[in-house]
């Protein structure tokens, strides 16, 4: 009976409200923070190609356990991608609770945004739209990392971007991910009061400036790396499928 009353009135028999929505909000924030920090690290890791093929190769082997395994194991990357995918799905499911499902809800949100001119409301709408796109493109990328973890490396990644025509998908995914993650991290600082408690207005302006700076920085970093992979893939297209061999393993013979 209590559940029935709460379903109609939004309150329990004793007049109190359920704590479940607050708990779900907290877990949405926690999973969002984990994914946001992962994205920052991921963009730095994938951009190691800007330091050269050897740097990217060494980093790939580190993630495959080269520090503690006699033979690096790509499956470790697949396991890590699976964990990220699970967190990704949980976060998406929690976030979908707040999407405007009905046309009237969407109109109210749009009207509020247009008349109030509230930047943070517009940022929420951008985050909702990018999150929707990420659910499809991000899932495709994570599936490739889970099912084919051995195809990560200077040549393997470049082949995927150029010869396998995944460069266009990644170009779009980069924009979605950077906007969603940086806006999300900014909104977390505002929602939970991180770094803004003492001076809310000043803190909001500072954090928003940091957000725009991060969007610009990571966009330049990620698209520079994507362009480098694309160029390498184009040069390597006639040897598609060949794996990179570092200079140290080939002596003085240059990498093909």
Summarize this structure as a short list of keywords or feature phrases.
3 helical TM bundles of succinate and fumarate reductases; 10 helices
Word description of this protein:
- The protein has 10 helices and no strands.
- The chain is mainly α.
- Helix 2 crosses helix 9 (200-235), helix 6 packs across helix 8 (167-191) and helix 8 (167-191) packs antiparallel against helix 9 (200-235).
- It is elongated, with a radius of gyration of 22 Å.
- The chain has one domain: Up-down Bundle (3 helical TM bundles of succinate and fumarate reductases), CATH 1.20.1300.
Topology summary:
Blueprint: H1 2-9, H2 20-46, H3 53-63, H4 75-95, H5 103-116, H6 119-147, H7 154-162, H8 167-191, H9 200-235, H10 247-250
Helix pairs in contact: 2-4, 2-8, 2-9, 4-6, 6-8, 7-9, 8-9
Give the distance, in angstroms, between the N- and C-terminal Cα atoms: 72 Å
Q: How much of the residues is beta strand, in percent?
A: under 5%
Provide the CATH topology: 3 helical TM bundles of succinate and fumarate reductases
**SSE-based structural type:** mainly alpha
Shape: elongated
The biggest sheet amounts to: none
The low-pLDDT segments are 252-256
CATH architecture, by name, is: Up-down Bundle
The helix content, as a percent range, equals over 70%
Radius of gyration computed on alpha carbons? 22 Å
Q: What is the H-and-E element order?
A: HHHHHHHHHH
* Structural domains: how many: 1
How many helix segments?
10
- Total strands: the figure is 0
Relevant CATH superfamily: Fumarate reductase/succinate dehydrogenase, transmembrane subunit
Nearest-integer average pLDDT: 87
Q: Quick one: CATH class?
A: Mainly Alpha
